[in-house]
Design a protein that fits this description.
Oligomer: homodimer
Structural class of chain A: alpha/beta
Strand order of the largest sheet of chain A: 2-7-4-6-5-8
Chain lengths: 535, 535
């Protein structure tokens, strides 16, 4: 088809129509104190002349302008003048803050052109392969809140499973780094450690950071709060010290003490990642490509040059088999290589929770006991942390391969790791905590073995669920304290674990879950599953 | 793993805690006049004791109960006591109406159990095949507004393209019929006609219904309003008569006159379809499986026993090639067979708009001119309508195959079709309309040929876009009037089409689109695309 530019002959000259129909009718901005959670929403009254003239339908995307500032928002129509008047435009909290203009200011609204990346989104929905520019455009729009929840979800579902080939995962990672700030610590070696998740109690970071920082490596660790797990590193660290630090303070602490354990939210690293996660988590979507892009983009944006990545495997871990773990490892290694990040993947034992405590206070107790070389410290947490810290220490050019573990162990045994942790805690803002008398939820119940035998299985998912029902992490003293681990012999009636809660309703929900299934299996010694992992 | 029921030993008896933490704390219901467009939203103040105690996070799903009524809603947190007080629960319009309880009543809120079908949704997202019970459960939850926009979008994206095999499409169709009411007209023959869409001006239904109703067949036609097209049958019929009829009135009219042309919204047929469409359309998703389920579920719910389905093909139609059309036809035929619907698929000429007018008033003019046997009536609209009406008439056991066209033509030529249409119009509630002087938008401009030759192409999508920019269908007198159709010779400077609008800004947008491309191609006679369709 050969489209032509036609000659246009006006048969009836349009009269200038009153202000309503000139492009961008004017309204007064009103801040609507509704938290719509990472989606821009605008509110117009149904009888507003602009709403009626422009042909907006509810959920249309509109463009809101004030001088040279523009945002996109989904439109909700309002039937109450007390909420929004006929000459007003309401904006939800996110949208109001993004526009950055004071309430009462004059704004103009018009039908939005779709975000420029929508064509690429539609191509990916149709199953086509996208290039680097496509991903940049999509992620730029996502980070700027130009996608509605519908468009965001479509992107997440259309890029899961094996819909992205490995080069597309690289493009996506690259685009996510480009969507926010990228830190530069001005040192040749900036180390970090990350776990893909799924193992309750796995707070190795809180030991690795003080150990490697005591050795002299720069380890500016930012972590997230728990989204679906019982506690995240940021939640557990917050028992010991402030974690929500202004970025400048975080940078000072790192320069002074070589490490920190802070919440990542203040640094605006990979902002698109947070928006994507807000959709991935409710849907239970966590595919390899998205996981790689999420983790590596955050680490690269944080300025890491060297990363040790922990992939636990086990029957109730995120990764269930060695072939799956190897596939995931290869994808991480491919993308890290393209992004010039030095990556060391360690496949670890994910058959059960790490340590004894699940929940912020209980985990903080375990961490402090390891640092203090307390005999009650959980040995698996200690050993795993030493091995991971050792791998990080081996990033130093002056350390021989294989020597890292011993160096890490010396740092821990000598108390230098404890000392470093106390420095970090003090610099971030100490909270009072005593691992001998931690402040736990005031209600509790014990779960005991129904028969004698050997612990042959501990269900990570069920234990995590019980800890969450008990109130973790919102209630920091809530959670589960494991008394018996895999391979241990138990007699009938012995306590397997104790659940702590603060509120009766939380305790009740946790009890109900335990009654369905405790998460523990007891059997014969030969039934304990094997794990073939490197160390 | 062999999970056990544990013995629970309470080590600390929980004291009864005050009312906040019993299951289901009480609040006063407040109606929030915000139209959140088919998604239930609940509003709690951030300082509300219930919000803080329950551990809700923004966008959690909560369950709202009043006596035995329950709904699910997504939570938005509010920071303004004027919007929602600390002892109140706000509900958006949809949610308030669904709960069906008066403002001020006491309601209880708690964390929602996920809708029961979420497991099936996750399985489909993971790429698994679902069974009939899965689809029933999902569609039941969707129709009851228990899915958030995120979950809805995930379902739509995970069931598009070839993600559903043909039996799953049948299960989906069955589930959609079961989600709403199903009409029974108590007659052995209830006929209907439907087009898959994509061809502007294609108002054959408004001719087919009066023709077949005049013959004596029961044809209770309900149609939708335009969602992305310039006009739907309901929009065009609304120029001539009321279309939003209470269901009982619609049923009376059908019994009395054998036919109607009404808006389908009052009958609550396949309610899940409307919810799904609210997500499919913004994303431009319209895959074969979803299309078949949508169309057939609506027709079966409407009580049709016999359906003639029009599938236009052409370079700018929804279906671009004969193999694609045949694939789609076979899927429709398979599902219709399983659902015991008698289906006749007709593949038609979709190379250009049907008729001359695009837009409600212009199309109504064309329809009335055909009915009045006016010489200005567009012949393609007349011919196509006769052929489709003939196929429907051949559903009668007393009509021989091939005789339907002649019968339909007689009904039209004799004026019986016009008479029947006037009866239907009067029964539904007549509006004044004169096809000799239709009330069109007061502004217009002409698009003329830049060179002489033959019309070799007319872009359905571009012409539809121009008509929408001009204001159609919200402005009923807006649209495009085509003066030249495919295969016609034109001289340079001759008018190809005229665009009507009511507002200057609409006219301007339409002009800008025409200037980019008129949608017409002019070339040599041999360049007119062929179409191999049956008739």
């Amino acid at each position: 088809m050969n489209p032509l530019s036609p000659a246009l002959t006006e048969t009836h000259t349009p009269e200038p129509h009153h202000g309503l129909h000139e492009e961008g009718a004017e309204l007064a901005l009103r801040r609507i104190a509704i938290d719509t959670y990472r989606e821009n929403v605008a509110y117009l009254h149904r009888d507003c002349a602009v709403y009626r003239a422009e042909g907006f339908q509810a959920l249309s995307k509109i463009e809101v302008r004030s001088n040279d500032k523009r945002i996109l928002a989904s439109l909700n129509v309002v039937d109450d003048l007390a909420l929004v008047g006929c000459h007003e435009l309401g904006l939800s909290e996110d949208a109001f803050l993004q526009l950055g203009v004071e309430a009462g200011a004059t704004v103009t609204v018009s039908q939005a052109e779709p975000p420029s990346s929508i064509g690429a989104l539609h191509r990916k929905i149709s199953g086509e392969r996208l290039d680097a520019e496509d991903f940049k455009a999509i992620i730029r729009d996502i980070a700027a809140l130009r996608y509605s929840k519908i468009e965001l979800t479509a992107f997440v579902v259309a890029t899961q499973r094996d819909e992205l080939d490995r080069e597309e995962v690289y493009f996506l990672t690259q685009a996510m780094v480009a969507s926010g700030r990228k830190l530069d610590w001005h040192e040749p070696l900036v180390v970090d450690k990350h776990c893909i998740g799924g193992i309750p109690g796995n707070r190795t970071s809180m030991l690795v950071v003080p150990i490697v920082a005591a050795h002299g490596l720069l380890c500016p660790k930012t972590s997230s709060r728990a989204i679906t797990s019982p506690a995240g590193t940021a939640d557990t660290m917050e028992v010991l010290a402030n974690v929500e630090l202004p970025f400048e303070l975080l940078a000072d602490i790192v320069r002074q003490h070589r490490g920190c354990l802070a919440w990542g939210g203040t640094a605006n690293l990979s902002p698109a990642d947070d928006v994507l996660i807000s959709v991935e988590r409710p849907l239970g979507i966590d595919s390899a490509g998205q996981m790689v892009a999420s983790i590596l983009s955050k680490k690269i944006a944080a300025g890491s040059t060297h990363l040790v990545l922990d992939i636990p495997i086990g029957p109730t871990a995120k990764v269930r088999s060695m072939p799956d773990a190897q596939r995931l490892r290869r994808l991480f290694e491919y993308v890290a290589e393209r992004m010039h990040l030095s990556l060391d993947v360690v496949i670890t034992d994910g058959r059960q929770p790490v340590g004894n405590g699940i929940g912020a206070v209980l985990e903080a107790r375990d961490v402090m006991r390891v640092l203090e070389n307390d005999p009650r410290a959980p040995n698996d947490l200690r050993q795993k942390s030493l091995r991971l810290a050792g791998r990080l220490i081996e990033c130093s050019p002056d350390v021989r391969g294989g020597d890292g573990f011993a160096i890490a162990r010396d740092i821990l045994d000598s108390g230098r790791a404890l000392s470093k942790m106390n420095q970090i805690i003090k610099a971030q803002g100490m909270k009072s905590f005593d691992h001998n008398a931690p402040l736990l939820g005031k209600l509790s119940f014990d779960v005991t073995a129904q028969e004698g035998g050997v612990i042959t299985g501990i269900d990570n998912l069920q234990l995590a669920k019980i800890a969450r029902l008990a109130g973790s992490p919102k209630v920091i003293g809530a959670g589960v304290d494991l008394f018996k681990k895999l391979g241990t012999a138990v007699a009938s009636g012995e306590v397997l674990y104790r659940v702590y809660a603060q509120y009766a309703s939380d305790l009740l929900f946790a009890q109900q879950a335990c009654q369905k299934t405790s998460g523990y299996s007891i059997g014969m010694p030969g039934e304990v599953p094997h794990v073939f992992v490197e160390f």
